[in-house]
């Protein structure tokens, strides 16, 4: 009888310890565990070009200039490749994202370890791409600031530098 009470007390302590150590995936009361589609990536603070008039002798031509942002999102693929990608974010923190599309996008599933952290009052979506390695062995990762979260999805931003000027990348995730 005494042994049963001891075992019960020990199990209670272990259970409370495990519950208190679990990292919740909640932002503003919304649990972000689940499946998402990254439906839009947008950039702000980057000059996307404009209209310029050029003069050739007596003729005038209007030329529209546009800037193509030559970059990789998460050091993986072009921004347009990520639009429509699916993200699996389970409770245990070991999820994945899948890029579909043509071979130029490097389609396929990438395993990730993800978490939600709050730093100075700002909720952050953090993840590491595992590529077959254990999460504790990977030191590099990505941090996105969560600017909005609802039961239907969340929006996160990443501050970047383009030609020495600050810019922001916005990621819009919609729950499936």
The CATH topology label is: Lipocalin
Approximate shape: globular
Q: How many separate helices? A: 2
Structural class: mainly beta
**Measured distance between first and last alpha carbons:** 51 Å
Describe, in plain words, how this protein is organized in 3D.
By secondary structure, this protein is mostly beta strands. The chain has a single domain, classed as Lipocalin, CATH 2.40.128. It is 14% helix and 50% strand. It is built from two helices and twelve strands; from the N terminus they run αβββββαβββββββ. The strands form three sheets. An eight-stranded antiparallel β-barrel has the order 3-6-7-8-9-10-11-12. Strands 1-2 form a two-stranded antiparallel sheet. Strand 4 and strand 5 form a beta hairpin. The longest helix has 20 residues. The protein is globular, with a radius of gyration of 23 Å. About 11% of the residues have low confidence.
Brief digest:
The chain is mainly β. 14% of the residues lie in helices and 50% in strands.
Keywords, separated by commas or semicolons:
eight-stranded antiparallel beta barrel, globular, mainly beta, two-stranded antiparallel sheet, 176 residues, Lipocalin
